[in-house]
Amino acid sequence: MLASNQAIKLVSELMMIAIANSKGGVGKSTLAVHLAVWAFDHGLKSAVIDCDKQRSSSTWLAEAEPKITIAVVDSPEECLSIGQDLIESHDFVIGDGPAGLDDVSRTLLILADIAILPLTPSILDIRSVQQAAGILKYAQAINKGKPEGRIVLNKFRVRDNISKELRVAAPRLGIKVCKSVIRDLGAYRDAAQQASVVSRMGRKAESAAEEMDQLFFELLGKKFLSNKKTLSNPKAVNQRRVANG
User: Fold this and answer.
1) How buried is residue 27: exposed, middle or buried, by Cβ count under 10 Å (0-12/13-18/19+)?
2) Which of 32, 148, 181, 240 has the CB geometry, 3.0–4.6 Å to 153, for a possible disulfide?
3) Over the stretch 139-164, which tens digit does the pLDDT of each residue have?
4) In angstroms, rounded to a whole number, what is the distance separating the alpha carbons of residues 106 and 100?
5) pLDDT over 90 at 171, yes or no
């Protein structure tokens, strides 16, 4: 595990990630919980702001890793106040946005350094990301270009025609698309049922854990690259995962 001052130094330029979309069922909570635990297991003091009325990420995370700070918000005022406090007191903050693009979503994006827009193989999801892109541009216009937008292809099926078409269509949305994709694997459903995360489920979820690692290092690579050997020290990270798994 990294010493606290090392962790803070590594994320000094990256304090918050928002996960947003105008509809539910795209995997926002799955990404939020896995990213929070991933950061925690790499030695970062992590927090999650749950803005979704279903409270999926806060309920899941409370069992998966009680040491991670959880905040539940219902209004843009709460989101702004609590978000600013958590950014000041934590190394890493993840915001799980609501299913919709209301004022809470706008506030979350204004606070964020990176905005993740999950996209699943559905024409409806492409439309929802188009809507989210408009709110993203609004936040960037009033926040000096932040947050950086990233589309994550989620629930991806390698041999599925719609998934293949999605990979072609996604770059046309005008937001950078992550090379790493999250496949439609049973391990993620198992993780939710077991109130855990794939990185703590051993060999049965090894493939899913590897693609989550790839995605998060891609998202955070510029910030962590020079210290990647320290941050991702297998022995330290695995000890922490085993101890908490």
Assistant:
1) buried
2) 181
3) 999 998 999 999 999 998 888 887 88
4) 10
5) no
